[in-house]
Prior knowledge:
alpha+beta, 3-stranded antiparallel beta sheet, two-stranded antiparallel sheet
Amino acid sequence: KVGWYNAVLQPAFHLPYPDDTLAFVILSTPSMFDKALKPFVKKERLKIIRDPVDQCISYHLSRVKEKFPDQRVDVMFDYEILPSRKPKFLAQTAAHVAGAAYYYQRKDVKHDPWGKKKIYGVCIHPKYGGWFAIRGLLLFPDIQVLFLEQPAPVDCVSTEEKRIELLEQFNFHWQDGRYRDIIEVKERYSEEQRVYFATPPAERFRLLGLTQ
């Protein structure tokens, strides 16, 4: 429910819908690269390509909208920002309140070792660890779900020591990706996918056989 999300945020970040409005958080799993992105790029080869992943997600969510011709469906993407430069929605908060992934933050550590340093939080999925992404939000403004029960996200990094390790790795060593394996995972990004996301955006077109 939109109300679960709005309840944990300041009014400036609230979604402008009634509390009982139905919403879905969209995640991409490790297999997205082979099952969705590569076929999309191959099919759309002759069209203008901006950011291939963003366009791929947009394409697939537009197809979801088409499945509900009689419903109003609003889509928000993780990369969209408002004129105020605020993001349209806070992806990690949305994933947490939907029960999709646990958003570990500084407040989840009792004995804080970081002093005045800025520490960013990170979502961990119980099956994929950090090998996933939050891509968007599907909202159904005409569907009110009064009796939907809120599922709690799985607290899979449950010890103080592991939480400190996770936030340390994510904030200070994120490039090496070790934080993604803070728990035992069922599936990881392929080597090809790791290379793609480790490559500066302007050079990724070449990896997909595209000219910019």
